[in-house]
Design brief:
Helix content: 40-55%
Distance between the termini: 50 Å
CATH class: Alpha Beta
Order of helices and strands: HEHEHEHEHEHEHEHEHHHH
Number of domains: 1
CATH superfamily: Aldolase class I
Radius of gyration: 18 Å
CATH architecture: Alpha-Beta Barrel
């Protein structure tokens, strides 16, 4: 059962957006249209409560409503990986709720805390993983924490995968090597299409994506060519999406969500605004998005 689920994660993990209206209320019709767009374009893993889904901009109640709504819309057509986090009690509460409404697994965000160390992170993750019934994916992104945490967690039966988001390929490859294969941990590139080819050749077998919300064909073309080892095609696609992905990285990753939302809005899809502390996109970045979308044949003006 766990092995079958893990194999299903060897693909694109789509971090779905949460569209907000101008009054900052959730646009539920827009959410449904966006999820259906992902379904129609072959997405097999959806992550409600990812960072691009503005997990930390939602109240606990709003997040639960979003998760439940996404699960109802998907209706078994894709794996649901529910983002959970905050304190241990809240993470467990969210994980138990995720199971109750039909999620397949959870992704544990790194805790938001000004003071964190590797031993504490290990204890945090261990308690959540062993308490919850659903299988867990660990989101590992703080370069100051020791990768030994992952090796120590690996024997836990319900720990099945790592969303690794530290763009140090030597470090990542060493960690993949050091975690015994017998534990069947799946490694997922957590920094999207820009880094996916590098992670793939270092041991990852899937990647997260925000781009898939607007350009699923390019995302899947990249994945398929990685799987088939068509390197010329891989690097051609990579070059084609690089400008967009680098635009998301501007302002110390501050553009991450709003670039996706602006692109969807310009293309006539449903994204709406973001909530503070993310502001609207500046005019220069909006224009760059327009030019990228034109180059992809998505705009006629």
């Amino acid at each position: 059962m766990l092995k079958e689920l893990t194999e299903k994660l060897e693909t694109i993990s789509a971090i779905n957006l949460v569209p907000f209206k101008e009054n900052e209320n959730i646009d539920w019709e827009g959410l449904e249209e966006n999820i259906e767009f992902l379904m129609e374009n072959g997405v097999k893993v959806i992550v409600p409560g990812g960072n691009t889904g503005e997990f930390y901009h939602l109240s606990i109640d709003e997040y639960k409503r979003v998760l439940k709504k996404v699960i109802e819309i998907v209706d078994g057509r894709a794996v649901i990986m529910a983002g959970i986090g905050y304190s241990i009690p809240i993470a467990i509460e969210l994980g138990e709720y995720a199971k109750a409404v039909g999620a397949d697994c959870v992704m544990i965000h790194q805790p938001i805390h000004p003071y964190i160390n590797s031993e504490g992170f290990y204890e945090y993750l261990k308690e959540i993983i062993t308490t919850l019934e659903l299988p867990s994916i660990v989101y590992f992104k703080d370069p100051n924490l020791d990768d030994v945490v992952l090796k120590r967690l690996a024997p836990l039966e319900k720990f099945i995968a790592v969303k690794y988001a530290i763009n140090d390929m030597a470090r990542f490859r060493k960690t993949v090597h050091d975690v015994p294969k017998e534990h069947n941990i799946l490694w997922i590139c957590g920094t999207a299409e820009k880094w996916a080819p590098f992670y793939y050749h270092a041991g990852a077998r899937g990647f997260t994506s925000g781009l898939v919300n607007i350009q699923p064909k390019k995302s899947f073309d990249l994945l398929n060519n990685l799987q088939e080892n068509n390197l010329d095609e891989v690097w051609e696609i990579w070059r084609d999406v690089l400008q967009f992905e680098e635009l998301r990285l501007k302002h110390n990753n501050g553009n991450n969500v709003i670039v996706i939302k602006e692109a969807l809005n310009q293309a006539g899809l449903n994204a709406g605004i973001t909530r503070p502390p993310v502001s609207t996109l500046n005019a220069e970045d909006k224009e760059e998005i327009t030019e990228i979308l034109k180059s992809w044949g998505m705009l006629n003006y």
